[in-house]
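Lay summary

Proteins are chains of building blocks that fold into shapes. Our project writes down both the chain and a compact code for its shape. Here are two examples, one after the other.
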Amino acid sequence: MAIKWINTNRKNPPAEGSRRPPRERGWLSAAAGLLAFVLGLSMVIDGCVFIAGAADNRNNWLADSLESDYQNTSQFRTFIADRLESMIVMGLGGPGGDWYGYNDYYGDFEIETYVQQDTATDWGLIWDGAWSSTSSAPKPVPGTTSVYGDELHSRWNPDKNLLYRVEYGGKLLYTNTDDDIAKPRADYNFYLHFNGEKVTITKDGSAVDVYGNGYYTEDSDWYVPGYQNFTLGEDCGKITITMAAISQPQVFITGQGNNGYYRWTNQLYWLCQGMEETRGGFRLCAVELSAGLLLLGLYWLLRRDKARADRTAARLTGKLWWEVKLLLIAALSFAICRRSYFGEVLVEAATAVTEGGMPIAWALREYGWGFWEFLSYLFESGGRLLALLWAVYFLLINDWRYNKTPWQHGVGAMLTARSLKHPLQKRISRLTGGVVLLVAVLLSAISLAARAGSDYLGWFGWIIGLPALLVLCYLAYFSRRLRGIWTDIGSLTDQIAAVRAGDLEHLLPLEEGRDLAQAADDLNHIQQGLQSALEEQTRSERMKVELITNVSHDLKTPLTSLISYTDLLAKEELPPPAGEYVAILQQKAQRLSDMVQDVFAVSKAAAGQLPLKIEILDYGKLLRQTLADMSQPIEDSGLTLRTDIPETPVPISADGTRLYRVFQNLIGNALKYSLPGSRIYLTLRCTENQAEAILRNTSAHELIKGTDYTARFVRGDESRTDGGSGLGLSIAASFTEACNGKLIVETEADLFTVRVTFSIRS
């Protein structure tokens, strides 16, 4: 059953039985759709970035966060391996030379001394003695303490989460407990022992398989000496190291730092806290992904309304210069690459290939860490990544979708001015773009100079740069005003051209606040005045035509009777004076009848009521036929007629009867008013698209300069008494225009020329 509904719109009522159309939502639903899209997609991307960062194989955060025991994580194993590495160096007397820093977060460093070159993997190459080859410090002495070892021991000693004991040849070097580490304790469940060659580990009273098949690979859990491909030198054989890790790490305050205690202590505690934070992050990530998917579902319901918000955003972004949009995106991209050192790595790799001659494959392997560092930074900076993505979406994708040609609004568009038609528009646009570009270049140069480090240039940059920046901002605002001005100039120029072409109906609407609103209003008033004058002229002309038509029509009946009675009188035998009078009366009546017919024809042509039969005809054949029909008057005139008419067909589109009348009037007019004994020339010239008939004769009377001979009742000589009506050329011009041709009269001294032009039809 169809649902009927009542519509209050009485102008357009719905059809009987039709369904209610969907209600158009307002701006609130459009904003909600856009907000749901942005927030939902941001939450999903941020959650995916978090998972990708947590799943990084180099840190194994994802796998470690799922472990309930922190001693089963890769981070714990890495921590123990690093501590063992540092303690071996402590037993060997520490590195020589003036060594200032530590290699990683814990204060450890790569053991590069005392590792055999043929068996070392990631621990590095052998250096015989010193950390730095340029150091003048003495070579470390195994079994003795060092500044390096004392420094590490002072930092590790307060942290009781990891107990340790370092001995060399049975001599105790470092320990952070007075108890026997080898004796099991209830709160310590992890024990490691290094005997100078291999490592043994027990956890919860059970031995741990450290070496597997005996060969170290990248998939090995423990990165410690003792593998067949990972052995140490002879001096390391006397080192004994014992470590015990607590089952539940605690916080040991060792000194005041930014957060109450130093970060390089309590590493096991922070490892556990990091695992808990990661698990909490995953819980929040799950909530974030769920909320993001719900918001994306809401966006899907409001996707049509979102288009309205996208168009609004496009209108806002469309006001920005195209170059500014690209600079913003480039700045965000540069910030991400700069913070990740990706750019520097690319430069180093390129330099190594181009200048150092390094093969590309080696460069990719040597500097590949930069790419992974870049990805890791992206995983850790979801906010910057989202900012870049939304900048690309709103400033490029959405802007391109709705603004179509956004590149036409900017400094480059102002300089090229390709979208503008008029010279004044282009001149203003290029001048504005040049000034903006000059100020931008000046501002950039000052900024670079200010970064050079010179105090003078720095102060100069502040003194000149700030005003230049203000000028640039003002020019950006002023260019928008100028854009509106040259747009209005173009509209005003187009309107003037339209008025010149005869379009007086369409006005130029401009808002009152526009700079050229007054000029547009004046032009509209001029246009309206011309339109009124034209309408008045048209109305007067129409009245004149109607009057002539009515009078001509009313004269037909009495003229017909007059001609009939004069014809009857002429047949009677009258006395000589009366017979002559009747002949004169008959001649004048016929002349008056011809004049009425001519006036009637001109009136119908002017009113657009002339019946026409347009057909394809031969222009040359029509001219030859007209000359043949008028051969007797031509012969009686005593004039010489010279013709140049091609024999090949010249097809034109016209009414043959009307065009015949045109040339009949033109030739008759030439025969009547030419200088006695002179010549008349009739030529038909053809071009690719046009055919032009030219009739020339020498007038017997002086031609008045500036006279329109195609106007009605116009004579070449006002003193003529030959009985002409002054309508011959007017009829010819009217009939030619009715047939879509063009008739032009030219006079030069006594030379009278008429040109009748038609388009050649294929």
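And here is the second example, written the same way.
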Amino acid sequence: MRRPRSKRLFTEYQQIKKYSESEISVENINLEGDLRVALIFPNTYNVAMSSLSFSYVWKLLNGLPKVRCERFVVENEFSKFYSLDSFTPLDEFKIWAFPIHFELDLINVFDFLKKRSVAISWEKRSDNDPIILFGGALTYHTPEMLFLVADVLIHGDLEEHLHSLKDVLVPQTRDKLLTHFSKLKGISVPPLNKLETEPLVAGDINTYPPVSPVISSRAQFSNKVLIEIERGCVWNCNFCELGASRKPARFLDLAILKDLLRIHKNVGLIASNVTDYPFLNEVLSVIEKNNVHFSVSSLRINKLRKRFLSVLHSQGQQTFTIAPEAATQRIRDVLKKGIKDDEIDSALFLGREAGFSNVKMYFIYGIQEENEQDLVAIGDLVEKALKVGYKSVIASLNPLIPKKGTAFSTRTIQSLQDLRRKMTLIRKSMPRQAKVKFEPPRKAYLQYILNQADFSTAFEVLRLFERNENCRFSDVLSVFKH
């Protein structure tokens, strides 16, 4: 395409070009279809490329015969929005598809649509507007808010929709596209009053092995080929939507994974808990034999083994991450975490024996059953980790956010006053050497509102964002309380 003439747009164009030049193609993706679909990640480039689903969905959509799907990212200084793949401006695309994995992604989508002069609500869009399509993790137990914004929602795993989408995603008018979408199972089309509640879930992840077709030096796992080895979760934690909605857990076939590890020498293994993979010892043998450098997304405390941690540490990693969630057995039982005190102790000792000098621990607070002793015990557990010999202990703390589809869905988030009081107690209990990170309670509360608001409240919240250039948290909170 021709370079932009204005200085501001040229700067934006140059930034996208830099992002594109930081990428390495792992697989050749065909961009030859007639129907242009913009896959827009509602966050920055670095966050987008740290998500396997972004590049994987891009690959799947471009596998459809009539589709030309190109990738876009959302950054505050952008206004024109150029494709990462051909630098084509966004306004040349007929369908804008957003992967929505977290509630706060919606705020970015609202701001993005306003910047592009597209109505946030589907009710106010015209035939000249693009089709706004949502997919992603939030479509498994869909918050009502999404039904007020999207023209189309694809619920569940995209792989299960590919066969039916092949005949729908072809060049045709906006009205015809919506009509054809409405005839498909597992797809909602709110403008035509078709609302689905059941997501389609893939029976396995081997038909379309989830591997990133492009990698970037700017991703969290820099220049690593991301491989999803587990989808869903074998556990049943009361607070977690992943374990509640995506059963049974499905694992990548060992033979497929072995082949991938022989091809790619720098990988990131993605799973709800990498240590739940049933053939982990065989995988470690392949990694060692082929000199594969690997990173992992998440570890389960009571499934850690010394060999695994030793291999991980031998590759230069100094920090490993675990999630006790609570420091007392009583609260872990409330959360249904399934972890015992001695298993946490064992994990900390194993990490030190393997050579790790740093550990990061995740905790949840703001649980109605917890008392002051439960909160102070978090600091005691961090102190124990320091006494075991870790040079650095990072404690990351998040308020409990009751969400749709979980066993805690009927609970309410604790008040901001209570959350702040508990933050103070926890902070005072922490040893001075520890690094403590709290998710801001207001941000947690906003996630809760976006997830749990009924249609009436969601409608009012949406109107706030439509009317106000900079919608304040206090405005949203007042609507929700009312």
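What can we say about the second shape? The mean pLDDT is 93.
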